[in-house]
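It is worth pausing here to work through a concrete case rather than discussing structure prediction in the abstract. The textbook approach is simple: state the sequence, then state the predicted structure, then interpret. We follow exactly that order.
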Amino acid sequence: MKRRNIPALGYALMGLLQQKPASGYDLRKTFSSTSLRSYSDSPGAIYPALSRLEKQDLIRGQIEEGKGLRRRQIFRLTPKGLAELKNWVVSPVTRDDLIWNLGQVLLRFAFSEQAVGPAASIELLKSVQHALREHLPALQHELKLMKPVATISGRLAFESGIRQYECLLAWTRHAISTFEKERKEGSS
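Step two, the predicted structure:
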């Protein structure tokens, strides 16, 4: 399947709609009251994003009667939208993803289990591990080269980035272990 040019907000919306159908207002409330608040909960962002997804036939809105005279549009993920969401979730993690889109990688992981199942969640974690194992030695080499010429604060800032990646690598091992342990306990 050819990847579409969908911004992270679009994938976040599709992931939420895969969990359960919702109105634009419901989605705005989710964005404003959860860790997804890093995305805009403004009507000027949410409703145009929903409209773009609907034009691409990735979601479908349907007017439903509410309490009293109130009507609202409830959005659902279409089969085409589910296929696109799954494709996005399982795509391999690259070095550029680590550098520029780490938040999106974690968003993919957050939706992975429900969208494609626990085995795919583990595969995504292994893809993150692989990208980190390839990227960390290059960063450590760059740090070694910069030590004689960098300021202390510059070197420490760079080390902070390396340590964040090392922590992420340790977390992936923990997450994989947790999945495997809980799957084993669930099958007992």
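Step three, interpretation. The mean pLDDT is 92. The domain at 8-87 is CATH 1.10.10.10 (Arc Repressor Mutant, subunit A).
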